[in-house]
Automatic annotation (TrEMBL):
This is ERIP6 protein. It comes from the Eukaryota. InterPro entries: FAM194_C. Residues 1-177 form the FAM194 C-terminal domain. It comes from Anhinga anhinga (Anhinga). The gene is Erich6. It holds the Pfam family FAM194.
Amino acid sequence: YPSGNLAVIVVREKKGRICIVQEDKPNNAEIQAVFMSNGRSTCYYPNGSVWINMSIQGGQYLDQEGRRVRRWTWLNTIMSSGPHIPLSPIFISLNQHVGVRILGQDKITVSFLAMGQQAKFSVGTKVQVSDAGRLPPPTWLGEDELLLLAFRVRILQLFDRLRGCLNFPSNEQWDKIKPPAYLTTQTLKILQLCTTSDISDELRSSVRAIVNA
C-alpha cells in the first residue's frame, strides 16, 4: 500500500499457491481475501463477514448478514445431480486499492491500484472436463484453509497474551484483559466457516479447540 503496509501475499506450496489480501494496517491486519490454486477462495466484508465463497464446483455471494444473494456453478463442472446455474460477472472492491473481478473459474483477477501504478494477479483455476465426474461433494472451504486460518488466529492470540503479560506482570490482571476486537471478529469468522463448510465433525471440533484455547 502507499502507506508501506503489506497488501498482497503469494505463498507457494507443494500443491500450488495461496494469494492472501490484507487490509491496510501496520499491525494486526485482518485477512480480506484468500485465493487457493485448488479452486477454493473466500472474500470478506470489512466487518469480517464472508462476502464470496468459491469452490471447484461453483460459488455463492452473501450479504453482510450472511444471507445468500446468489450462487452459481462453473460451466465445466456440471453434475448430473443438478442443473447449471450461470455466473453473472462480479466486481467488488475489498478496499480503496484492491479489487476482485470474477468472470469465470479461470478468469478471477485481483487488481491492485495505487499512485498511478497497477498490478494484476490471476488467481483463477481450471478443472478439466474429464475430471468433472470425479469431483467431490460441494464444499465451500477446505480443511487446509480452515486449519491455516485457525492457527493464524491462535498465533495472534498468543502474541496478544504475551503483550498482556509484559504490560501487566501481575497474574490477577490477566483475566481482566479482553482480547482486541479484530481477534474476536476473526474467531467468530472461523467458527462461522466451520458451520458452513463441508468438513468432518472431528476437524470441526479441532478447529474450534484451536481458536477457543
